[in-house]
Write a structure and sequence with these properties.
heterodimer; A: 291 residues; alpha+beta; Uridine Diphospho-n-acetylenolpyruvylglucosamine Reductase, domain 3; Enolase-like, domain 1; five-stranded antiparallel sheet; B: alpha+beta; Ubiquitin-like (UB roll); DNA polymerase, domain 1; five-stranded mixed sheet; 6 helices; globular
Chain lengths: 291, 190
């Protein structure tokens, strides 16, 4: 690990000021579960670490007046799993389920939602869920505050649309009426491994079935990818198994064109996308049928 | 350099340390508790798992400065440890240490129910992963007094054991859970 200076601001304003003062070598650290691994490998070597642990108001979950769920960037996975159905009602509960089923308990105790989003690792779950439910991200920086869609925030392995002097403060899930069913599916070899491919399916009910569908695939490409073409096939009457399979085939082809006849690594992911989209859509459609 | 104070197994330790010092290094080299092991140093093997303010943590993937002021419990803090520690390890003292627990007349209160069950179920061979297994399982059983075998396997997903094949570790966790619930009598020993 390369030497660095440890800084502990108390507010996001101070954190932004420290990032500017010590640019370009300063990095933010929340739980550190990804950053410390990179620092030990020397694939990251910040000159200054700005800790978010002491920053007020960055951890915790609350429902805003408009019904959207504001998840502080420094909220740990474990904190999310401890929330009950009043705090995480309806499909917002998928966030708790996802947070409770990744890595292992010691890592979940320290790893944060913001860390997951800002690491830009295509295998991580939270970015795929965030993009999949059309969430927004709250960012504060020297140039003021802004909100950006979660879709498009990650731009490739290790790359996110965050300027060096900005801090991600919250993940905001849309109000519950935005969707009627959300399902997240992933595949990994061992329980504590990161996902190879993950999929989010979000459905909004209409008068006679599905009024709006959103499909997002992670892991198959360098950043979470929406597949609007395949999702459009789901709009209409509740899809039967054949329609689900057709949408899954279309999704795989949309994410990895020609993947079925490509080399082994791509073919494998192509097959995973097909399977996971089928599972996610089947589960979300079943939820819709019940509601 | 940065000054850090941690309470390790009830003992307050303050030191000036390099910012890069990992919590694992602080616990082992500064506080002197060598129970937590350095296995992989990349948060995979779980041999370094300890409790920080009651939350299980892989101490190789946390900086000591991140947890300044915290209360830390390592495997040494699991039970009162009535037995005198072996201070100078030689082949002979190792031979003495190898005596079965019965022979050194441990009493039940010397061991946490999990340690007792690990011993009884032969849940370790080389023992390198054991401190991490014990700490992770302690948290799991405290949160889930009626564990399932599957739940125990999920709980130790982040702990690698290259000797036992996990079977006996799961057996031990299930037995310890009974004792911790008070369903089974603490086995008379010694």
């Amino acid at each position: 690990m390369r030497a660095f200076t440890w800084l502990e601001p108390g507010t996001t304003t101070d954190a932004v000021a420290l990032l500017r003062e010590h640019a370009p070598g300063a990095r933010l650290i929340a739980g550190g579960q990804s950053l410390l691994l990179a620092m030990k490998d020397r694939t990251a070597g910040p000159t200054h670490l700005v800790s978010l642990a002491g920053v007020e108001g960055l951890a915790g979950v609350r429902t805003a007046d408009d019904g959207s769920l504001v998840v502080g960037a420094a909220t740990t996975y474990t904190a999310l799993t401890r929330l009950d159905a009043t705090a995480l009602g309806g499909w917002h509960g998928v966030l708790g389920a996802v947070a409770g089923d990744l890595a292992d308990r010691p890592v979940r105790n320290r790893g944060t939602v913001g860390g997951s989003l800002c690491t830009g690792d295509p295998r991580y779950d939270v970015p795929v869920l965030a993009a999949g439910v059309d969430a927004t991200l709250r960012i504060t920086g020297a140039g003021g505050d802004r909100e950006v869609p979660a879709t498009g925030f990650a731009q490739g392995p290790g790359l996110v649309a965050l300027r060096p002097d900005e801090v991600l403060t919250a993940l905001v899930l849309p109000p519950r009426p935005r969707w009627d069913a959300v399902a997240f599916e992933k595949f990994r070899h061992r329980v504590f491994d990161a996902a190879i491919v993950s999929v989010t399916c979000a459905l909004r009910a209409g008068a006679d079935g599905v009024a709006e569908a959103r499909l997002t695939v992670g892991g198959a490409t360098p950043a979470p990818t929406p597949v609007p073409g395949a999702a459009a096939r789901l709009v209409g009457p509740l899809p039967d198994p054949d329609a689900v399979a057709a949408a899954a085939d279309a999704a795989a082809e949309e994410v990895l064109p020609g993947g079925a006849t490509a080399g082994e690594a791509v073919r494998y992911r192509h097959e995973l996308v097909r399977t996971l989209v089928r599972r996610a859509v089947t589960r979300a459609a079943a939820d819709l049928r019940r509601s | 350099m940065q000054q850090v104070t941690l309470t390790v197994n009830g003992r307050e330790v303050t030191a000036e340390i390099d910012e890069r010092t990992l919590l694992l290094e602080f616990v082992r080299e500064v506080a002197g508790f060598t129970g937590a092991h350095n296995g992989c140093l990349e948060a995979r093997c779980g041999c370094c798992a300890i409790e920080v303010d009651g939350e299980i943590t892989k101490s190789c993937n946390v900086l000591a400065v991140q947890v300044d002021g915290a209360e830390v419990t390592t495997v040494e803090g699991l039970a009162p440890q009535r037995l005198a520690p072996v201070e100078h390890v030689t082949t002979q003292s190792l031979a003495g240490m190898y005596a079965p627990l019965e022979a050194v007349r441990t009493r039940a209160e010397d061991l946490h129910p999990l340690q007792e069950a690990f011993h009884r179920c032969h849940a370790l061979q080389c023992g390198f992963c054991t401190p991490g297994m014990l700490m992770v399982l302690k948290g799991h059983l405290e949160e889930n007094p009626e564990p399932t075998r599957d739940g125990v396997r999920h709980a130790i997903a982040g702990n690698l054991c290259r000797c036992t094949g996990y079977q006996h570790i799961v057996d031990a966790a299930m037995e310890a859970a009974e004792v911790m619930r008070g369903d089974a009598p603490v086995p008379a020993d010694g």
